Amino acid sequence: MSEHILVSQSGQVRQLILNRADKKNALTLAMYNRLSEALLATDSDPEVRVIVLRAEGDSFCAGNDIADFVAAVNNPDAMQAPLNFLRAISGVSKPLIAAVSGAAVGIGSTMLLHCDLVVASQQTRFQLPFVKLGLVPEGGSSLIMPQLAGHRKAFELLVLGEPFDAETSVELGLVNQISTPEQLQQRTMQLAEEIAALAPEAVRQSKALLKQNMHDQLQQVIQAEGELFAARLHSAEAQEALQAFIEKRSPDFSRF
Fold first, then answer.
1. Cα separation of 223 and 228, whole Å?
2. What is the CATH code of the structural domain delimited by 2-184+195-200?
3. I need a surface site. Which of 127, 154, 203, 256 has the fewest CB within 10 A?
4. Neighbours of 219 (CB within 10 A)
C-alpha cells in the first residue's frame, strides 16, 4: 500500500517515511515491497545525495505485522518481500540516515544495522524478540551484532530478547547519537544536509570502502537467515508463539 510509505524531497535529501502510525508502523509485505522499490529508485536518482528513513507517529517500527505474516506463511513468493528489502537496504550506495523514535522492534531494529548514521529519541526502546516468537535472528543481525557487542552480549539481545533503551543502543554502536523527541527530525535533517553538501562521489566511495570487506559475507548471511526464518515460520514453536501473540497471552513451550 503506497499510502503506508511516503516519499518526500528537500533539496538533495529524500525522506522515506513509514506511515502506518495506527499500527505503530508494523511492516506488511506490501510495505516491504514499496520500501524496496523506493530505496532502489532513490539510490539511482542523480538528484538525491542522502536518504533519510523515518516514521510518522509515536513509534519507528513495531516489527512485522504478525497477522499479515501468518496469512502469508504458506506463500513462498510473498515471503520473498522481506528478503528483497534487506538486500536493498544493505546494498544502497548513498548514505542512509535513520531517525528513530518510540518502539523499534525486530526488523525495526535490525534495519538500522545497515544505516550509516542513526539518531534516536531519548524515548526509543529497542527489542530483538525473535526467539520469543519461535524464530531466529534476521537482517544480518547474527553477523553484525556479535561484531558490535561481542558474542555474549549479542546472545543476550538476540536470544533473551529483552528491550533496551537509547543509551544502551549508543553503547552497543547501533545508534550514533540521542536527541530529544522534539528535535529528532531537525537533528537528523541537519546531519543529512551536512553530508549532502560534501563531495558526493567521495562520500559514496568512502561508504563503499567501509562496507566492502563484509559485503559478500553479509549477503550470504542475510540469505541463510532468511531461509531459516521462513522455515521456522512453519514450526510448531513459532505457530504457538504467533498464535499466543494474536491472543495476547504468553506462549507455552513446555510440550516442545
1. 9
2. 3.90.226.10
3. 256
4. 15
Which cell numbers in the block locate residue 36? 524496496
| Residues near 100 by beta carbon (within 8 Å), at least 6 away in sequence | 54, 60, 108, 112, 118, 119, 120, 121, 124, 175
Q: Which three three-digit cell numbers place residue 47? A: 538528484
Three cell numbers, residue 224: 541463510
Predicted TM-score of the model (pTM): 0.96
The amino acid that residue 41 corresponds to is A
| Continuous segment of H or E residues that includes residue 85 | helix 80-91
For 87-96, write each residue's pLDDT tens digit. 999 999 999 9
Nearest alpha carbon to residue 114 among 168, 162, 43, 23 = 43
Closest CA to 87 of 225, 230, 229, 231: 225
